[in-house]
Amino acid sequence: MAAGRHPSRLFVVAQDSSLLGNLVFNLNLKYLFSQKSQVPDEEEPPLLRSLPDPVAYFKLVNLSYEYMAFAASPDGQVIAAIGYKGQTLLYDAAAAMNHPMNHPVLLPVGDRMFFAIFGKPRVHPHRGQGRRPPTFEDLGAYFVSGTRVYVSLRTQGTYSYHTVRRRWRTEGAWELPVRGRAILVPNFLGTGRKLLFGFLDFEEPRLYDEFPLCAVDMDARPPVVVGCWPKAARFSQQLRAGYRICPRVSQLNYFGNGRFCISVTSHKSHSRDGVVCFMAVELTQELQLLKHQYSCYLISESTGRYPADVLL
After folding, report:
1. What pTM value is reported for the model?
2. How far is CA 166 from CA 98, 129, 182, 212, 286, in A?
3. How far apart are the first and last CA of the chain?
4. Looking at residue 99, what is its pLDDT?
5. Nearest 5°: phi and psi at 303?
6. Residue 195: CB partners within 8 Å, gap ≥ 6?
7. Region of residue 192 (phi > 0: left; psi between -120 and 50: alpha; otherwise: beta)
8. For the CA atoms of 283, 312, 303, 178, what is the dihedral angle to 10 degrees?
9. 10 Å Cβ neighbour count for 291?
10. Looking at residue 8, what is its pLDDT?
């Protein structure tokens, strides 16, 4: 956790069609962990809160809607965005790639570097190309550890890229058992265990609330799942209230001291009403799960059906 950052603050980025851009909101979710004994009642409808006033506005690069990936630097002072054509909101547009890429991902590496990943044909570090990068077909999991970015590719294996030396390294022919952005905790709660936290991957299609939170032992080769909590990422309250989860796996953020925040974006059928919901959970040294509070925030109708990005 970088110095100067509040351990329970995060950013929510939501598209706003009326402004042709993205609004950034700063939330303090400390209250979600304030009462350890309080467990959310899944039978009750979610309490809807209002988002605070936005702290920033990012105008779309091309003045037309495209999916953009966002990332915040560890010190919280820089937020970067990149579109599927490679344009960014921090660098000159002349540095963009020459042809469209699918499903961009943006990862912070240090305070002033961001690493861009695209669906195909390859990984593109934002400060120079790597040597002999792996070909990209099906991105599985990805995470940052120090100056290295780790990428797991289905059917290809797992690789890491050293952002200082600008070199690739093959970690193994194995694939990580999680999907999407994962979080590495090198010394979890002082136990000396190097654990990777994320949402379990499945080969067959699943409902969006059926990707359980899990912990992976990264000292093992291949890495193995050592803990799994299917109910941690369930948002049954909003489903009962008529909301449908956006087609994206839940997002995970780590506040330190074993405290995690799981978030999803939902919208009502035949409506532009949307909510972004947060579930606070805590893990003990023995990997026992403690549920905390659950909270939802209303999203402006002008955001349409786009999922919000949640950045720590």
Report:
1. 0.79
2. 21, 7, 22, 34, 38
3. 10
4. 40
5. -80, -10
6. 184, 185, 188, 215, 216, 217, 218, 226
7. left
8. -50
9. 16
10. 73
Task: Give the residue among 307, 295, 310, 231 at the shortest CA–CA distance from 45.
Answer: 295
What amino acid is encoded at 40 in this protein? Answer: P
Nearest to 90 by CA among 98, 99, 101, 81: 81
- The confidence score (pLDDT) of residue 91 equals 33
DSSP helix/strand/coil, 31: helix
Q: For position 298, what pLDDT does the model report?
A: 84
Tell me the C-alpha distance between 120 and 137, whole Å. 6
Candidates 229, 307, 224, 238; CA nearest to 268 is 238
- Residue 301 pLDDT: 61
CA–CA gap between residue 291 and residue 279 (Å, rounded): 8
For the stretch 220-236, what's the b/e string if a residue is b when 16 or more beta carbons lie within 10 angstroms of its beta carbon? Answer: eebbebebebeebbbbe
* Residue 289: Cβ within 10 Å count: 16
Low-confidence ranges of the chain (pLDDT < 70): 1-7, 19, 35-46, 60-67, 73-79, 82-104, 118-137, 203-210, 233-243, 245-249, 269-272, 300-306
